[in-house]
Design goal:
339 residues; alpha/beta; 434 Repressor (Amino-terminal Domain); Rossmann fold; 3 domains; 6-stranded parallel sheet; 6-stranded mixed sheet; 16% strand; elongated
């Protein structure tokens, strides 16, 4: 049986009017009272009647996340769901709902325009891969709040975006390996059409230069992001005349390909080959040896993107913000040489 506002009020020790104000995000409440009521609502599995609220105040109750339904990597990557979780957590605190707006890329403008015309949402979050001048100009023309996930530069017009500091991550990976005695460091990553891979490459180059370490062109390998290509790339590197003694991988999938190649060629990790991987899947702790990882907090990225959007919804004239989230090294066995 559905929980009523009256039951929520009784459990929280407040009036039904106070519960109603929390649901409708009234500014006339203290944060303490708001948090108390929200906690009770969550414990009692209370779901606000969004339809009734929408009919009564004629106001959209949704925030949209635009996705490309034809980009399978989004759905295969568990971090996609962590980003969504971060967005939904922030949106829920405001009494709004997150909807997923699916497009095929080429029809994104029509999808967004339909949502705005139908008054289905108050704002939209757009991955940088789908953001372009035409779509953003439409949103600006309609004075519709939007935030981009991923670093996005568009001429002289500022855009609010949130991203991981991937240059910092590239630098941290190199510095960690150097501190552990590795001096010939390769980089195996995904496509350089992605800004985050270019940023990681820039951090990698900058750190090698700062530490006056060698960098060979063939040590930088671009792949399609698959385990098989990482496996082939690592085998070729290990068979070369000037093979590296450490490698940084763009994610855990690439790292598993590297580990397979090293095992087949009887190259010991970490004794003969140090390994650091971007991303920090749960599997990173379960493989042997466990993977040293560059941790990226994508939940925080989603949460910050949503909060930035909510700020623009509250004040459309607020200044645009560009935010980078720091990375950190999670040290495990794959980069610590055994003595």
């Amino acid at each position: 049986m559905a929980v009523s506002i009256k039951e929520i009020a009784k459990a929280a020790g407040v009036s039904t009017a106070t519960v109603s104000r929390v649901i409708n995000n009234s500014p006339k409440l203290s944060q303490k009272t708001r948090d108390k009521v929200l906690k009770i609502m969550k414990e009692m599995n209370y779901v606000p009647n969004s339809l009734a609220r929408g009919l009564s105040n004629q106001k959209a109750l949704n925030v949209a996340l635009l996705i490309n339904i034809e980009e399978p990597s989004s759905f295969h990557n568990p971090f996609f769901y962590e980003v969504m979780h971060g967005i939904e957590t922030a949106v829920y605190k405001r009494g709004l709902s997150l909807i997923i707006a699916s497009s095929r890329g080429e029809d994104k403008q029509e999808i967004v325009e339909w949502l705005m015309n139908e008054k289905r949402m108050q704002g939209i979050i757009i991955p940088s891969s789908l953001a372009d001048g035409k779509l953003l100009n439409l949103l600006r023309k309609r004075k519709f709040p939007f935030v981009v996930i991923g670093k996005f530069e568009e001429g002289i017009k500022p855009v609010s975006w949130v991203d991981i500091n991937n240059q910092q991550g590239g630098e941290q990976a190199v510095a960690h390996l150097i501190q552990n005695g590795y001096e010939r460091i390769a980089l195996i990553c995904g496509g350089m059409d992605k800004v985050f891979n270019l940023d990681r490459l820039e951090g990698y180059k900058r750190a090698l230069a700062r530490h006056q370490m060698p960098m060979e062109p063939n040590w930088i390998v671009e792949t399609d992001g698959s385990k098989n290509q990482a496996y082939s790339a690592m085998k070729a590197l290990l068979q070369s005349d000037n093979c590296p003694n450490a490698v940084i991988c763009g994610d855990n999938i690439l790292s598993f390909g590297v580990m397979k190649a090293a095992q087949e060629m009887e190259v010991s990790i970490p004794k003969d080959l140090g390994l650091v991987s971007f991303d920090n899947y749960p599997l990173a702790t379960l493989v042997e040896p466990s993977l040293t990882s560059i941790h990226i907090d994508v939940f925080q990225m989603g949460e910050m993107a949503a909060n930035s959007l909510l700020a623009l919804i509250d004040n459309p004239d607020a200044s645009q913000q560009q935010m980078l989230i720091s990375t950190a090294v999670e040290v495990r066995e794959s980069s610590i040489r055994r003595t």
